[in-house]
C-alpha cells in the first residue's frame, strides 16, 4: 500500500513539476527557502569553526569591552561578528543561523504532523459522510476551531512553565489539523461517488484499500498545499509566543532573540540585533506563502484557466 502511494506521488510530481517551475511565485519562494536551508545547515559548521564562544545560547566574546552607546556588550557588525553582538557579547549571526534551523524543525514538523492527521481524518470523515464517524470527527473539528489558540498557549505555559520545543510542536499539531481535515473531507465526498471507486467496491476491495489506494492519491496535492500554508503559520506562532516570553529559553529561536532584545531594552539601541530575526520570520513565511500559492494553481484548475 505504501509503495502504491509512493509511486502515485512520483507520478503526480512528474506531471506537475513543469507547472510549478513555470510559476514565478513558486520559483521565488523556492530560492528564498533554499537560502534559509543553507543557513540552517551552515549554522553548526560555523559554530564548529569559530569555537564555543560562538555558541548560540551560551557563547560570549570575553574580549569585548562595554559599548558606551548601548551601555552593554552589544556592538554593531564587525569582521569577527558579521551581525554584531547582543548585550552579553554573544554572536548575533550564530543565533540567527540557529534560528533558521529551528524554523525548519518547527515549521516542517508541525506541518507534516498536521497534514498526516488532517488527511487521515478527512478521508475517514468524507468516505463515511453522514454517519456517526463523520459527525464525531466534524464536531471535534468545530470545537477545536472555537478555541482561541494563542491565549490557550499562554495559559498552558503559565501553568506548566516555559513550553519546551517538543511540547510546543505536539500542541501545535493537535490544533493545526482541522483545516486540512475539512478540505480533504470535501474532496473525498466528491471522489467517493466516482465510477472507479464504485468499480473497486464491486470487485470486493475493502474500505481501507478504497480509501488509501484509490482516493488518497487524488487528495495528496491538496494535502501538500495545506502543508505549505501551515509551515509559515507555525513559525509565526512560535515566534509570537517566544517574543511574549513564553517560549523555551534554552532554544535560541528568532522569536527568543527578539524577546531577549526587548527584555534588555535594546530594540532601538541595537537594531542589528532586533531586525535580522524579524526579517527572517517575514521572509521564510513569505517563501512558504509563495510556494503555497503556486501549489494552489496546480490543485485548482480554475486558476490555470484564468491565465
Low-confidence stretches: none
Report helical residue fraction.
Answer: over 70%
Spell out the helices and strands N to C. HHHHHHHHHHHH
Structural class: mainly alpha
CATH superfamily: MetI-like
> Termini distance?
37 Å
Task: Identify the CATH class.
Answer: Mainly Alpha
Number of strands: 0
Shape: elongated
Q: Into how many domains do the coordinates divide? A: 1
Count of helical regions = 12
Q: Sketch the major β-sheet.
A: none
Radius of gyration from CA coordinates: 23 Å
What is the subunit arrangement here?
single chain
Estimate what percentage of residues fall within beta strands. under 5%
Mean pLDDT over all positions: 86
What does this protein structure show overall?
The chain is mainly α and 307 residues long. The protein has a single domain (2-51, 93-306), classed as MetI-like fold. Helices cover 73% and strands 0% of the residues. The protein has helices spanning 2-21, 24-50, 92-127, 132-146, 149-160, 165-174, 178-191, 195-202, 207-243, 254-263, 271-299, 301-306. Helix 3 packs parallel to helix 6 (165-174) and helix 3 runs parallel beside helix 7 (178-191). The mean pLDDT is 86.
Amino acid at each position: 500500500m505504501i509503495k502504491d502511494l509512493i509511486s502515485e506521488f512520483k507520478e503526480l510530481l512528474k506531471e506537475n513539476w513543469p507547472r510549478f517551475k513555470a510559476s514565478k511565485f513558486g520559483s521565488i519562494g523556492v530560492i528564498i527557502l533554499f537560502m534559509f536551508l543553507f543557513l540552517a545547515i551552515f549554522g553548526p559548521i560555523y559554530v564548529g569553526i569559530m569555537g564555543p564562544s560562538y555558541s548560540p545560547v551560551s557563547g560570549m566574546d570575553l574580549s569585548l569591552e562595554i559599548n558606551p552607546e548601548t551601555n552593554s556588550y552589544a556592538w554593531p557588525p564587525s569582521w569577527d561578528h558579521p551581525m554584531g553582538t547582543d548585550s552579553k557579547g554573544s554572536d548575533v549571526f550564530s543565533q540567527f543561523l540557529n534560528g533558521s534551523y529551528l524554523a525548519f524543525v518547527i515549521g516542517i514538523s508541525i506541518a507534516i504532523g498536521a497534514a498526516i492527521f488532517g488527511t487521515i481524518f478527512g478521508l475517514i470523515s468524507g468516505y463515511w459522510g453522514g454517519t456517526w464517524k463523520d459527525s464525531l470527527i466534524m464536531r471535534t473539528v468545530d470545537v477545536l476551531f472555537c478555541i482561541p489558540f494563542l491565549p490557550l498557549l499562554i495559559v498552558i505555559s503559565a501553568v506548566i512553565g516555559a513550553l519546551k520545543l517538543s511540547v510546543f510542536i505536539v500542541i501545535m499539531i493537535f490544533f493545526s489539523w482541522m483545516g486540512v481535515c475539512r478540505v480533504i473531507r470535501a474532496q473525498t465526498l466528491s471522489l467517493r461517488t466516482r465510477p472507479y471507486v464504485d468499480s473497486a467496491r464491486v470487485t470486493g476491495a475493502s474500505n481501507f484499500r478504497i480509501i488509501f489506494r484509490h482516493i488518497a492519491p487524488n487528495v495528496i496535492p491538496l494535502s501538500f498545499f495545506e502543508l505549505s500554508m501551515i509551515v509559515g503559520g507555525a513559525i509565526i506562532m512560535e515566534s509570537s509566543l517566544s517574543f511574549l516570553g513564553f517560549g523555551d529559553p534554552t532554544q535560541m529561536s528568532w522569536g527568543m532573540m527578539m524577546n531577549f532584545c526587548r527584555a534588555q531594552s535594546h530594540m532601538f539601541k541595537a537594531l542589528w540585533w532586533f531586525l535580522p530575526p524579524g526579517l527572517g520570520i517575514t521572509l521564510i513565511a513569505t517563501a512558504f506563502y509563495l510556494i503555497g500559492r503556486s501549489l494552489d494553481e496546480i490543485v485548482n484548475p480554475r486558476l490555470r484557466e484564468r491565465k
